[in-house]
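Lecture notes, structural biology module. Today: joint structure prediction for complexes of two components.
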Amino acid sequence: MDKFISHTGTAVPLRRSNVDTDQIIPAVYLKRVTKSGFEDGLFAAWRNDPEFVLNQQQYKDATILVAGADFGTGSSREHAVWALQNYGFKAVISSRFADIFRGNSLKGGLLTVILPQNVVEKIWSAIEADPATPVTVDLEAKNVRLGSDIYPFELDDYTRWRLMEGLDDIGLTLKNIDDVTAYESKRPSYKPKTLPARS
Amino acid sequence: MSKTLAEKIWADHVVRSAEGEPDLVYIDLHLIHEVTSAQAFDGLRLAGRTVRRPDLTIATEDHNTPTQNIDQPIADPVSRLQVDTLRKNAAEFGVRIHSLGDAEQGIVHVVGPQLGITQPGMTIVCGDSHTSTHGAFGALAFGIGTSEVEHVLATQTLPLVRPKTMAINVDGVLPEGVTAKDVILAIIAKIGTGGGQGYVIEYRGSTIHGLSMEGRMTICNMSIEAGARAGLIAPDETTFEYVKSKPHAPQGKDWDAAVAYWKTLHTDEGAKFDSEVFIKAEELAPFVTWGTNPGQGLPLNASVPNPADIADVEERGAAERALTYMGLEAGVPLKSIKVDTIFLGSCTNGRIEDLRAAADIVKGKKKADSVRMLVVPGSARVRLQAEQEGLDKVFIDFGAEWRNAGCSMCLGMNPDQLAVGERSASTSNRNFEGRQGKGGRTHLVSPLVAAATAIRGTLSSPADL
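The predicted structure, tokenised, for the full assembly:
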């Protein structure tokens, strides 16, 4: 996983709330067995519309998505995170994210930034007025900057540290695997096992 | 200190806890299917890791499998690749798998409970958001992403931040024709699709405990549609009775020890929830969604709402877009809406009681000429049971298609899809744009409403027959 310390790029306004993961990547695109190549399915239904914001020339190179509230609801598919990353997004800003999507994004190194809805509206206005406006998402300083405006955001210290170090969760857990073994030695015998199979 | 049910289960599974870090939580059961596991197994292989506990892991094929001609190779090459990949991964890593054609194959959330590997007090995860279904047994069960699937395969744990707790109390007697599905649709309409975000919901009250295990599963299944990653119900005699007859139920002394533990699994007197909601069963009615998120629902007797009446700007915009997508006009009675397809199935309503309830309505009748109806049992076992009871004949005589088990049209990953503009009354869980097929229009309903709608061709409840 790449380290995320700070990212500066242009941003695209997605003025929709409740964008569920079926919209981010429809189920028919989920059939790959790799983690790459999902960019063609990103917002597939909407991208048929030439007016859709991602199809507009001025937002073609955007690396930050600024979305309405409740982004990423619905299905747990991590393909939604991969599709956004494969397309080139480094960060998504919204006033509220669905829990599973947020967990997936922060595990995978796609920074999801929570800012109040009125700030999201201000950013929308700014990047619509000038799509070339550079936007900085600074994880080290925990703020989003555009022009002279600085908007602080919250992220727990542990997740921030893990993202800034680019650390793999599994590696971190394996360091404490003795605790897992100790826990297992005390598990009650009535807990079900799938093997040997009974039916 | 008094604890809620969710807090008790959490506390019993914390492997490691450190200041400023998420808790490391032990996972009792990991369910796997073909769509969200391939990249996880590949990750293990690349890192030279193994599956820590194959004996706490089980796989089945459900999301993209066909429901017809299942004795032949899967026609869609990409679906076939995913299924073949799962089979190879299961063989390589020693994971039990129930493949297409096997009596235990089916939707992962139907298979777990029917095998009896879903039990009270467990932590259960799966790369599928409807894992919340298993909460019906008083288990803490939730959907995870593929990175987390890999994490559980490698370590049998997950680093997790403890969620807040919400109580949803439903008390009283449900009116005739009102089912668990209507209860959960009404709850989602009340608290909104984001209302449960960050929470584990505990469903409580006399109405909830009056439901069968299958009804409870329907309720917990759609917790995610209210934004909650998990929803659960304290186990009681109904739960114990259900588990007892299942293949993987604890035996002998283990059964006694298990029940003794399970009886401690309830929210203590005086325990505090972070949020609480109250609903009166008597006020509920058969429910149907009119829009493109599961919170956009109303009693079947109502009319399509007018977005102009919605005060919140965001919600109004969402309602306007939804009506355009759904091809509906404000003010039109919901019962006048004609549908093209009836889908009876899914992890929400694809169990034997759902099939029985619908069969009871359609028995001896003929479907409306203008509709097609797909009946897709939640598992091969449910299908067999239904056939033993003659339900397959009831549905076939009615004019419905009797299919094999799987997720099917709930998410349209297999050939069972809506065409552009086609309208369904569906017992599934999501009415998102394009969910059941590109351009398809979904109304979420109970099995009873689905059956009555199939007879009349317009959204209907059994009372309208």
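Point to remember: Chain A has a mean pLDDT of 95.
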